[in-house]
Every structure is written in C-alpha cells, then in structure tokens.
Amino acid sequence: MIVHLPSGRGWIMLFVALGICSEATSPASAQQAPTILIGAFVEKNYSTQPGIQVSYGRASLLDGRPRISAAYSTTRLATAGGSNALVEDRIQAGVGWYFRPVGRLSPYMAANAGYARFDREDAEIFELLDGGAVLLSLLFGAEVKLLPFLRANGNVGYSALQSSTVYPLVASIGLHYHLNQSRR
To answer: How far apart are CA 147 and CA 165, in angstroms?
Structure first.
C-alpha cells in the first residue's frame, strides 16, 4: 500500500481545515465561538452561475467585523440544461468587512480574487476566447439574519479585470447556514 503525503501547500491546507473543524466542535462560549457559514449562492456576470461558499470569522478579532471566504461557482448546470453554450468554472477567495456584525441587518464590503476557467468544447465558436481569466472584484452588499442559524445576503460590485466573458458589473444572492450557532 502506497500512501501519498501532501506537498507543502497541502500540509498548510490540511492544518487550516483541521483547526477550523476542531474550533467549530470545541465547547466555547457563544461570545468566543467563530462564525462559520456554509451556503449556496447565485452569481450573475457574463452568465448565471450557482455556487457554494464557506466563510470564517472570529468574534474576538476586531469585534467580528472581518470575515474570509472561499467560493466555487459553475455554469455546468445551465449548460447541461441547454441554456448556456460555454462551460465556466470560477474559484474565488475574498475578505469582507461587516459594519454591524451582531445586528440583524449587516451591510458589508468585500474584495474577491480568483480565476475563471473556460471549457471551450467548440473551437470554431470560441476560438478567440482564452482558456481562463483572472478575477478581481469589489463588492457592496448586506446580510440579513433570518433565523439564528440562517442568513441571506446580496451584493453588487465591480470587476476590475474584464475579459471577453467577465463583465464589469457583478451581482449575487445567497443563503447561508451558520454551522456553530446555538439554537436557543
């Protein structure tokens, strides 16, 4: 049996994931518990893309205002349904600043960076299209606490780097579940 150990980056990602998971399950007071959200969103730019997102923040860091996130979205579902011709996968990481993190309505601004990869199945139609594009965007939005463990958010923003399939304006809406929120 051969066991493949992770590379340098793989070890870092493994330790971060283990730290987040152990922190989410440790008995901490509600004041000190981190904010860990997982959810689904729909992003509209060149095309409509559903995706998933994970966010993490600490109440003890600047009153819980900053939050980091990672997201993946794709047009594969629309392409399979016949409503989109180009398959696109996006992976993004970002940081957001929440102005009222404990309020029911919390406005925020965020900066995201990532990469979009295009699957050019028809070379004749998409011959001028690159295989991918770097993403960089600034977003403004709001998050609403619907229930203690359920949040909805929406944002609009500007993509600083445009290409043939990345337009300047971007918008998204989402629904997120707070993993470690008590349900009292």
So the answer is: 37
Beta-sheet strands, E only, within 61-104: 66-74, 87-98
What are the residue ranges spanned by the domains of the chain? 31-178
Residue positions counted in the chain:
184
Distance (Å, whole) CA 92 – CA 114 = 4
DSSP state of 5: P
State pLDDT tens for residues 74-100.
Answer: 887 765 555 556 778 889 999 999 998
CB 22 within 8 A of CB 166: no
**Angstrom distances, CA of residue 3 to CA of 6, 182:** 10, 39
Q: What is the mean pLDDT of residues 122-140?
A: 77
The dihedral formed by the CA atoms of 115, 119, 122 and 124, expressed in degrees to the nearest 10? 20
Which candidate, 141, 150, 88, places its Cα nearest to that of 111? 141
- How far apart (Å, rounded) are the C-alpha atoms in residues 35 and 64? 8
| pLDDT higher than 70, residue 27 | no
Give the residue among 133, 125, 126, 181 at the shortest CA–CA distance from 160.
133
Are the C-beta atoms of residues 81 and 64 closer than 8 Å to each other?
no
Residue 105 dihedral angles phi and psi, to the nearest 5°: -115, 120
Domain 31-178 in CATH 2.40.160.20: yes
